[in-house]
Amino acid sequence: MTSFPATAVQVRDRSRDPRRRRVSLRNCLYHFAPYGFHATWNHLAAAHRIPRRIEADPESLARALDELEAARVVVLPRAAAFAADQRERKRHGRRFPIAAHPWDSWGGHGIAYCPDPGKHPFEPLPVVVGRVLDACAAGADPRGRCLVCGDEDRRPRRACRHCGVLPGGRNNPI
Ligand SMILES: [Zn+2]
């Protein structure tokens, strides 16, 4: 499978068939989809008005990609800093806590996974992703309060009633 950046280049390539560019955008979601594949696609399609007949507005794909990339830029430095910290600890023979970090999840799904593709936050992806990662860095406990919308009436291992987010992702729901 090609990388996210290489697939992103295919999305922006105006010489390609718009339908193939749309497939490339969907392929980007295999690399990075903070709400999960389907909910992230639904969000981007609605927010950037990606038409069913893509020939009518192929540039909607580039606009959607801009938003997706902006969210990825929020995540990458934190993942890199965490990896560097792990290497440093290893070099000094220190053990490090085996904690779940949302960006480690496949495609970043653990950041703000939405099990119902039709129910996800309305705010831009970089805003939501940044808010969740800031809260994680500050040690916030997602069991007490939704890290995305602040709802204090969370039900364990169930998606938030207001924003649709289930912390921990598909495999490790909290
Ligand atoms: Zn919420």
In summary, what is this structure?
The chain is mainly alpha-helical. It contains 5 helices and no strands.
What would the keywords be for this entry?
single chain, 174 residues, 46% helix, Winged helix-turn-helix domain-containing protein, binds zinc ion
Secondary structure: elements and pairs:
Layout lengths: L3 H9 L5 H14 L5 H11 L11 H33 L33 H13 L37
Helix pairs in contact: 1-2, 4-5
The site of zinc ion has 8 residues, from loops.
Organism: Paractinoplanes ovalisporus
Protein name: Winged helix-turn-helix domain-containing protein
Description:
The model has no long low-confidence stretch (mean pLDDT 91). This protein has one domain. Helix 4 runs parallel beside helix 5. The protein has 174 residues and is mainly α. The longest helix has 33 residues, at 59-91. The chain has helices at 4-12, 18-31, 37-47, 59-91, 125-137. The two termini are 30 Å apart. It is built from five helices and no strands. Zinc ion binds next to loops. It comes from Paractinoplanes ovalisporus. This is Winged helix-turn-helix domain-containing protein.
